[in-house]
Write a structure and sequence with these properties.
single chain, 4 helices, flat
Length: 107
């Protein structure tokens, strides 16, 4: 996940060689300032809009990760590695704020 500067391309470029060398798929979603404005839109998961009103769960920024991950598994015929907790590591505050966030599933 990119940082507060929304620089997913930089993260992708920095991880590219390592991903090739160790043969892992690198997924680098970008949460733009336009679509996920301010701290509320990205860092806090877009659970509330800028006026403080609740946003439907399927529109949270965190809700985009699981479908992206599932699509990568399906598209590339991949399975998870449950021995190391799965390939997807979540930020702790997102798990605490989204109790329905599923844990990594055995492959």
């Amino acid at each position: 996940m990119h940082g507060v500067r929304r620089n997913a391309r930089d993260y992708r470029d920095q991880w590219h060689e390592l991903a090739k060398r160790h043969d892992f798929l690198l997924l680098v979603p970008e949460f733009s300032e336009r679509d996920f404005p301010g701290t509320e839109g990205y860092n806090l998961g877009r659970q509330f809009d800028q006026a403080g009103r609740p946003v439907p769960r399927d529109q949270w920024s965190w809700s985009a990760i699981e479908p992206l991950f599932d699509e990568a598994l399906k598209r590339f015929g991949m399975v998870t590695n449950s021995t190391c907790g799965g390939p997807l590591k979540w930020m702790p505050h997102s798990v605490l704020s989204n109790p329905r966030q599923r844990p990594a599933r055995p492959g």
